[in-house]
Amino acid sequence: MMKGPSGPATTVASAAPVLRIGAVSKFFGTFKVLEDCTLDVAEGEIVTLLGPSGCGKTTLLRCIAGFWEANGGTIEIDGQHMFRVPVNRRPVGVVFQSYALFPHLTVARNVGYALRMRGLPRAEAKARVAEALDTVSLTGFEDRYPAQLSGGQQQRVAIARILVMEPRVLLLDEPFNALDAKLRGTMQVELRLLIKRLGLTSIFVTHDQEEALTMSDRIAVMRAGCIEQVAAPDEIFDRPATAYVADFIGTSNFWSARAEGGLVRLPDGQTASTVLKGEVRVMVRPHNLRLDAAGQGPWQGRVAFHRSVGPLVEYHVEIEGGMTLRVATMRQSANRPIRDDASVSIAVVDPALCAVYPG
Amino acid sequence: MAKASFPKLAARPGVGERLIDALLSGRGIWPAVPAIVVLTVVAVIPFIVLLSLGFSDFVVSRGEIVSQTFSLDHLSNALSDSLYWTTFQRSLTLALSTTALCLIFGYPVAYLFLVGGRWTKRLILVLTIAPLLTSGIVRTYAWLVILGGRGVVNSTLAGMGLIDQPMRIMNTHWAVLIGMVQIHLPVMILPLIAVMSRHDGRLVEASENLGATRLGTLRTVILPLSVPGIGTGAALVFTLSYTTFVVPQILGGGNYLNAATMIYEQVVYSLEWSKGSVSSLILMLTCLVMLVAIALVTNHFTRWTRGSDA
Ligand SMILES: Nc1ncnc2c1ncn2[C@@H]1O[C@H](COP(=O)(O)OP(=O)(O)OP(=O)(O)O)[C@@H](O)[C@H]1O
Ligand SMILES: [Mg+2]
C-alpha cells in the first residue's frame, strides 16, 4: 500500500472516516477480481476509483452497496460492520451507470421512491421530493415519465432519487458515460459542487482520468483488482507512486538508467536523487522537458512532429536508440514553434520532479 | 472524371430489386399480402359460408344446398335455449378459473426466473418448454393414468390408507380443470418470462438500494412492469381454454359439455349445422369481448408505456 506524503489537499479531518474498506477481496470462482483493497473515505470527501476497464471498480462498488458480499476483508460505515447487512439496510445510495430509473413511475414517484418505501407521510415526502428536484433544477418535470427525458435529465433524476434518501455514502458508477462530451464537462463540475455543498461522502468510479482529476478530493488508482496509490489529484500527477500510475495518468516519458550512491544521472548531465540502487526507470512529464538549440547540451534529438494543443505545443522528439520523447512547451508568440526535422538539444527543467522507479 | 465514375458506384437497381425494396419499405400492407391471401382462402371464406348457414333456412339435396332463405330463427332459438346459457357459462367459468390458476402457479415461476441464477433460469426454461414438445392430446391422456380409478393418485392415497374407495376424479369438473391448468401453464409462463427478462436486474437492485424490502420491490416494481406479460398470458390462456375441445372431451369422459364439445356434437352427431354455426358465432363474439376486456385492463395499468411517444 503506497501513500504519498500528505500535502495540504490530502489532509483528512482527524475524525474517524465514514467509510472504511479493509483488505477487501472478491472471487468469482477461482478468479480473483479484488485483492486486499484498503481505502478510507473521510466525511464529505469525494474519492475516485480510477482504473482501466475490468480492473474491479464496479465490483468494489457493488460490494460496498451490498449487491455482492466480499469474500474477505471488512467494510465499515460509521464504525458499523456491513457484513451480512442486506442492501436495503445499508446507508448507501447508488447512482447506476444506466441510471436504472423505474420506467413505470413518474419523475416525482421515482424521486419519492425511497421515502415511500420508508413510509414517510405523504405531505412531508412531497415537500422533500420538490426540494430534491429543485436541487437538480428539474422543477416542473414531476409528471413526466423517464422515457420522456433527455439523458442528462434522467441522470439528474437518478441523483435526486438518491439525495432524498440522505445516504451516508454516495456511490456513483461512471454516471457520465451516456452523456456527450460537452454536457459531461459541465455536469462534472455541477455534480462536484452539488456533492460538496451537501457534504456527501462519495465514491466515484471512472476510467477517464480527466474526469477523475475534475471530480476528486483524492484518487485511488486501481490495477487488476489492487489499489496502487491513493492521493490527491496533484500528488498523483506530480508524484505517481509507481510506474503504472505514472503511465496511466497523463503523458509520461520513460527511460532506463543506473542509480548509484542515491543519485541517477540524467542524459542531459543533471542528476536526480533516489533511494533506489542499480537498474531503474526514470519518468519525466512532457512539460518538465525543454528544447534548446542544437549543440547547447549533451542530450541531442530531432523533432519528428509537432502540433499545437490549445496553449501548448507538443513535440515528438526522436532521440538515440529509436525512442521518442514527448515534450510540451507553452506557446509564445515571440518564438515560433521549432520546425519539424530540426535538430535540438533536450534538457530537464526541474530534476526534482523526475520520478525514479525500480527497473 | 468524378462525375463519370459516379453512376458505376451506385448501379441502378433492377426491377426485381426495386420491387423487393418497395415491399420491405414497410409502407402499406404489402409484406402481409401472402398471409392475408392464405387466411382469406382457408379461414375467412369458410367462416362466411358457415355463418350463412346459421342465418338461413336451407334445403340440402344430394350434398348440395339447393335453396337458402335468410332467417334469424336459429339465433333466437339458441338465445332462448337454457342449454346454451349453461354451457357457455360453464365454458366461461372453466376458462376464467384456468386463467386465474395458471397466473397463480405461473407467476412465482416467472419471479424465480427473474431472481434466480443462471442454472435456475435454464432449468425453468427447459421445464416450461419441454411439455410443449409433446402433443396436448398425449399430455391429456397421461392424466388418465394419473387420475383414473386405479391411477397414481388413487393407488397412492389407498396405499397410505387415507381412502378405502378410489375417489372419482376422472370424468369430473376437477379432472378437466387440472388438465386445463397443466396444458396451458407454459403459455402463461413464457410471456411472463419474456417481459421480466426485458428489464435488467438493475431495477430490482435500485429498488433494494432505495430501501425497499423484497415484497416492496415485488409490489411496486416487478408486478407493475410485468403487467404486459400478465395481459398477454391471460389473453392466450383464456382464448385457448375458452375454446378448447380436447381436454374436456377426454378428461370429461364425453359428458362434460363446454362450448366446443357442444359445437362438435351439433355438427358431427346431430348434423344440425345451423345450430353449430350460431354456437360458433356466439363463442367467437364472447371470446372477442373478453379479449377486449383483458386488453383494456392491461392498458389501464401500462399507461406509462405510452409516455414514450407523447
Ligand atoms: N458476475 C461476474 N462473474 C464473473 N466475473 C465477473 C463478474 N462480474 C465481473 N466479473 C469480472 O470481474 C472483473 C472486474 O469487473 P468490473 O465490472 O468490476 O470492472 P470495472 O473496473 O468496473 O470495468 P469497467 O470500467 O469496464 O466498468 C472483470 O474481469 C470481469 O470480467
Ligand atoms: Mg464498471
Keywords for this entry:
heterodimer, A: 359 residues, alpha+beta, 9 helices, elongated, disordered N terminus, B: 310 residues, MetI-like fold, binds adenosine-5'-triphosphate, binds magnesium ion
Written overview of the protein:
The complex is a heterodimer of chains A (359) and B (310). With 359 residues, chain A is an alpha+beta fold. Chain A is 23% helix and 35% strand. Chain A is built from nine helices and 21 strands. In chain A, the strands form four sheets. Chain A has a seven-stranded mixed sheet with strand order 1-11-10-4-9-8-7, with helices on both faces. In chain A, strand 18 (312-319) and strand 19 form a beta hairpin. Chain A is elongated, with a radius of gyration of 24 Å. Chain A starts with a strand and ends with a strand. Mean pLDDT of chain A is 89; it is low at 1-13. Chain B is mainly alpha-helical and 310 residues long. Chain B has a single domain, classed as MetI-like (MetI-like fold, Orthogonal Bundle). In chain B, 71% of the residues lie in helices and 4% in strands. A two-stranded antiparallel ribbon of chain B has the order 1-2. In chain B, strand 1 (56-61) and strand 2 (64-70) form a beta hairpin. In chain B, helix 5 (82-115) packs antiparallel against helix 6, helix 9 runs antiparallel to helix 12 (227-242) and helix 12 (227-242) packs antiparallel against helix 15. The longest helix of chain B is centred in the N-terminal third of the chain and has 34 residues, at 82-115. The radius of gyration of chain B is 26 Å and the shape is globular. The two termini of chain B are 50 Å apart. The complex binds adenosine-5'-triphosphate and magnesium ion. Magnesium ion (MG) is lined by residues 57-58, 173 of chain A.
